[in-house]
Amino acid sequence: MSETLELDPRDRGGPAQPMLRVDGLKKYFPIRGGLLNRTVATVQAVDDVSFLVHKGETLGIVGESGCGKSTTARLLMRLMDPDSGSVVFDGDAVGDLRGITVNEMRRQMQMVFQDSYSSLNPRMTMAESIAYAPRMHGLGRKEAYDRAESLLAQVGLNPRQYARRYPHELSGGQRQRVNIARALALEPRLVILDEAVAALDKSVEAQVLNLLGDLKEKFNLTYLFISHDLNVVEYMSDRVMVMYLGRVVETGPVEQIYRHPRHPYTRALFASKPTLDPDRRTTEMPLTGDPPNPINPPSGCRFRTRCAFAEAVCAEKAPALAAPLHGDYDESSPHLVACHLPAAQRAMGAHHV
Amino acid sequence: MLVFALRRLLQAIPILLGVSLVVFGLVHIVPGNPIDMLMPPEASPEVIAQMKAAFGFDKPLYVQYLLWLLRAVQGDFGLSVFNATPVWGQLIAALGNTFILAILGAMLGFGMGIMCGMISAINHGRWPDKLFSAIATMGVSLPHYWCAIVLVLAFAVLHEYLPAQGMGDDSEPLYHRLQFLVLPVVTLSLIPMGVIGRLVRATVLEILGQDFVGALSAKGLTRWPVIRHICKNAAPPVLALMGLQFGYLLGGSILVETVFNWPGSGNLLNLAIFRRDIPVLQATILVLASFFVMLNLLVDIAQAAIDPRMRR
Amino acid sequence: MSHTTMDEFATGARPAADDVPATAAPGYWKSVGQRLARDPVTLAVTLVLIGILIITIGAPLVTSYDPFAGSVMARLKPIGTPGHWLGTDETGRDLWTRLCYGGRMSLLAAILPVSISLCVGGALGVFAGYAGGLVNTMIMRTMDVFYAFPSILLAIAICGILGNGLSNAILALAVVFIPPMVRVSETVTTQARQLDFVEAARASGTTTFQVIRYHVLANVLGPILVYATSLISVSIILSAGLSFLGLGVTPPQPEWGLMLNSLRQAIYVQPYVAALPGLMIFLTSMCFNLMSDGFRSAMDVRLSK
Asked: Is the pLDDT of residue B64 over 60?
């Protein structure tokens, strides 16, 4: 987080107010079947997800495939409507009469998708793709294209070479840079990066990550960085949120999470990171049991069927996100865990340097 | 599977109802009373009122519709305005004749189409491909009524090999009457041949181009099993199209039957239009369209039975 | 274009890894045009169609007779008669003239219904495809009812009820073509809508109309136009068929289908003359069919990633 946080003219609450406050977000997908195509079951993709994003920080969201990270991103951008829950952007409720509209929110919050090729209209040049949104919002043609070209330069692509090219002529890394430029075209304050570097080669990935870091500083951005790659998340984030099967299981500062993970799932996740270092051996218990069905998740704590510490209370009540049941608790950067059992939280974990 | 079939059946019911609504409504869209179309202009008001009551035109529209529908599902379409015989009997007889043409035309057309398509696909890029593709394209672009005329020209007028019209007398022996079939059946088979030929060619090419066919060859399979495999994979879309084409042959035979004066349902429809014989008109269209719907239903179920991915 | 700003930032940005040549590639539609221009079949067919258009629209210029004036003495002259190079019809009218003027009606009856159904059906289909959900279901189920009729049956039913005349025939054909048009455009729009760049456009806070206009339309127009072109070839045959049955254009208007019917009896006298109108129908239909195929191949080339 930058120390000298210049206030954006659109800022409404000052540095103390969170950029984004999400409360109780829920999204269930119905499964139809039977004779009359009735709903026979639901996929509980996102269940009671709440979190904060502070101004100027990067919040990383990690979890396996199917844990609901991408659905959460789409719910935030209102590409889908949530079944319940509220999203408050810098103090204004989104979609509420007294707050801001979805479109107003979208002018301040943008998203970069994973697939760099399908994210770009194959019939539009790079400049046209970037200039589309500003033009639609009222900017004149020349100004929009000028902005597009300057953004291309910002992301490291020479506008003279790239402005009039089509997506199929660029490499994956170049396209992703264009996607970033497009996300910045409306001058947002928060950018959601949904697996934005997942499809790139490692060397290109490093370049793009560095670019993201530069842009964040230059434009005073806040990031929501979604990824399944633990190393990348550690590199980029200030705080991390771990999701499992549609729920948040742990959240806290990146050093805390990575060095002293409390939730059994988080520890298992880190234990599964492959490493070539013979000195880094793990003493963690591996995950047991079968991966559960997102259609019929286990009652209570959803991780209990794979948790070595599970007890009766875990089946009865879903654990709330709360402070860890022992040890270091820092008010200024809270570390929250969703687990009933002190024993589970206390178990020895793999240490990461 | 059964659930899918039942669900499809349920979906067909509102479609059939909609069809009946359209058929019924078409007649009443025209401004003016249907009676006025049937009666000579000098008829007295009493006679007109009598006819109205007899036909039920004096009742409100939705009542007329329900009554008509109720009778229709029992096979009672009333009497033909033209010759006062029951519509149902005429329609069944005519349908039978059309069926003969349609089945034979379908067999010939599908057979030739499959052959053309396979030859084209296997010899992709070489002259057999170009030849048979051209033949298939021509089949699709041909106005079959013109083709009928040309065939009549060639085989009945210029050289009197075959009869130009009709179905022949009942008194003549069967093999003699078969002559009457040749020209209409060949004419009818041209469009299905073209359509099926093109689809078979495209589908087989796509299958041949897929990786697993190469894998099968690499496993040492000789030609015959590979061909059987191609057939199994090409079957679903081709079968679906065949069903559709058969429906078109049944429902769209009117032009060919007119040229050959073949006493089928198309000919009946044509006459009904010119005689303004509303009951016959309604009955023919309803039955033909309903048949088409049921045919589509069967095709969907058959497709789902072969290819599980089709079961939504 | 000022490049000072670019230079300012260029020092901080990492340069791209690969080097791409500075010439811009042609856009999608331009490359389609280029591919079309290199396809000999499509070129030939387009030339033939332009020729047909010229002789029909410019009929007064290439013919010297009145299409309605016949002379009993000149009835049913064969091909190659001096003064009537394609012969005369059953009332003595010059066949070449009738064919040229007749082409106007035939082409009109072929192209107009498809254009109408393209606008109406295309718009409806794109709307249904983009909206999705209940709206989509309702629209498509309604179309299913009309799909239940074989096309010629529906056209004949509508014409039979409404009566003769060119406008009725055009209306009937437009109604017949709307359901397949809706189905095709709904399918491609539904596919396009799920692509990420459409989602990104929606996420940028622009209106639905803008998203459709700039992102969806350009990507669905291709397949829709290919289908419309193939529909024209069907429309020619159907409209001529309607006239053949007496349901379309009324005599003494020249029109290919009508001429085919009225010359039917002449088949015993002048067989080759009687077959001529059908040849024109066949030729035109085949040309549109081949053109549609050409369009499809030109647009089908997958742009590689």
From this structure: yes
Q: Which of C5, C197, C305 sits opposite A121 (nearest CB)?
A: C197
Q: For residue B166, is it left (φ>0), alpha (ψ between -120 and 50) or beta?
A: left
- Could C16 and A106 be called an inter-chain contact, meaning their C-beta atoms sit closer than 8 Å? no
pLDDT score of A190 more than 90: yes
Q: Which CATH number fits domain A2-124+169-237: 3.40.50.12780, 3.30.365.10, 3.20.20.70, 3.40.50.300?
A: 3.40.50.300
Q: Residue A325: in which H helix or E strand, if any?
A: none
- The range of the structural domain enclosing residue C185 comes to 28-66+92-303
pLDDT single digits (tens) C212-236: 888 888 888 888 988 999 899 889 9
Spell out a b/e string for A274-293, using b for 16 or more CB atoms within 10 Å of the CB, else e: eeeeeeeebebeebeeeebe
Q: Measured between alpha carbons, how far is A294 from B61 in angstroms, rounded to an integer? A: 54
Q: Which residue of A has its CA nearest to B5?
A: A35
Domain boundaries, chain A: 2-124+169-237, 259-350
Q: Which of A79, A107, A170 has its CB closest to that of C202?
A: A79
Q: Has residue C127 been placed in a domain?
A: yes
Chains touching A (at least 3 CB pairs under 8 A) are B, C
Instruction: With a cut of 90, say whether residue C90 has pLDDT above it.
Output: no
Q: Which segment, A74-88, A290-304, C132-146, is predicted with the most confidence on average?
A: A74-88
Q: Which DSSP string corresponds to C42-110?
A: HHHHHHHHHHHHHHHHTHHHH--S-TT---GGGTT--TTBTTBTT-B-TTS-BHHHHHHHHHHHHHHHH
Res. B120 pLDDT band, cuts 50 70 90: confident
In a domain, C2, yes or no: no
Does residue C150 belong to any structural domain of this protein? yes
Between these two residues, C236 and B220, which has the higher pLDDT value?
C236
A121, A189, A212: best to mutate for the C interface, most C CBs within 10 A: A121
Q: Across-strand partners of A25? A: A49
For chain A, give the number of residues. Answer: 353
Residues of chain C neighbouring B258 (CB-CB closer than 8 A): 244-245
pLDDT on residue B38: 60
Peptide bond connecting B143 to the previous residue in cis, omega within 30 degrees of 0: no
β-pairing verdict for A222-226 and A239-244: unpaired
pLDDT at residue C303 in the model? 38
Of C145, C153, C285, the CB nearest to B15: C145
Three-class SS of residue B283?
A: helix
Query: How many structural domains compose chain C?
Result: 1
Highest mean pLDDT among A95-109, A302-316, C67-81, C291-305: A95-109
Task: For residue C12, list chain A residues with Cβ-Cβ distance below 8 A.
Answer: 214, 218
Say if residue B217's pLDDT is above 70. Answer: no
- Cβ neighbour number for residue B221 with a 10 Å cutoff: 15
- DSSP conformation letters of B146-191: HHHHHHHIIIIIIS-SS--SS---TTS-HHHHHHHHHHHHHHHHHH
Domain assignment present for C143: yes
Q: Which residue has the higher pLDDT, A238 or B248?
A: A238
- Chains near B with 3+ CB pairs less than 8 A apart are A, C
Q: What is the identity of the amino acid at B30?
A: V
Nearest-Cα distance to chain A for B156, in Å, is 56
Query: What CATH number is attached to the domain comprising C123?
Result: 1.10.3720.10
Q: State the best of A31, A35, A38, A40 to mutate against chain B, taking most chain B CBs within 10 Å.
A: A35
